[in-house]
Write a structure and sequence with these properties.
The protein has 5 helices and 7 strands, in the order E-H-H-H-E-E-E-H-E-H-E-E. By secondary structure, it is of the alpha+beta class. The chain has one domain: 3-Layer(aba) Sandwich (Aminopeptidase), CATH 3.40.630. The mean pLDDT is 91. It comes from Streptomyces roseus. This is Acetyltransferase.
Length: 174
């Protein structure tokens, strides 16, 4: 049985990155403690800076008693560079897309319902027609979880030579 996590979720934007960067790195370090030796995992600070530098960057962080327990962030996709681009036969009439780059919950707070709360808080109020995310194909339970949230797999992608192969998943944002 899942317990309800009593957390406060706060929203942040591109101008807040300097203030929240270390928080994101700390949560990541805890969430990936079992995989910290992997070179791709070690490049997370670069990804934070990359995504945080994108126009429209949005982040939500869950706090429990002033302890960051999870976060999600992303940014609007540049037209023509949506992750689903090469996987759909027909481009949607409204192709505006929000890319959910990260959704991370510290181990102690997993299976508490926090993940969907972070996801919904990140996408709440967005104007894009679509949401897209990727999930490691070696993590089928996560893919199933996202399918339960309304996503569907549209293809696979390996964006970097040392990255996992990801399932590209998308859903209507509204």
């Amino acid at each position: 049985m899942e317990r309800l996590v009593t957390t406060e979720i706060k929203h942040y934007g591109q101008t807040d990155l300097g203030d929240i960067r270390q928080t994101l790195l700390d949560v990541h370090e805890d969430a990936y403690a079992d995989r910290r030796h992997e070179e791709f995992v070690q490049r997370f600070p670069w990804f934070v800076d990359h995504w945080g530098g994108k126009p429209g960057f949005s982040c939500v962080i869950a706090w429990e008693e002033n302890v960051p327990v999870g976060f999600s962030y992303g940014a609007p996709a540049n037209p023509g560079q949506e992750w689903w681009q090469e996987h759909l036969e027909t481009t949607p009439q409204d192709a505006s897309t929000f890319s959910v780059s990260e959704l991370m919950v510290r181990p102690k707070w997993r299976k508490t319902g926090l993940g969907p709360r972070l996801h919904d808080a990140l996408l709440g109020g967005r104007t894009e027609a679509w949401a897209v995310l990727t999930v490691d194909t070696k993590r089928p339970r996560l893919q199933t979880m996202y399918e339960g949230w309304g996503y569907r797999k549209v293809g696979e992608n390996q964006p970097f030579a040392d990255s996992p192969v990801y399932a590209v998943m998308m859903k209507a944002a509204s």
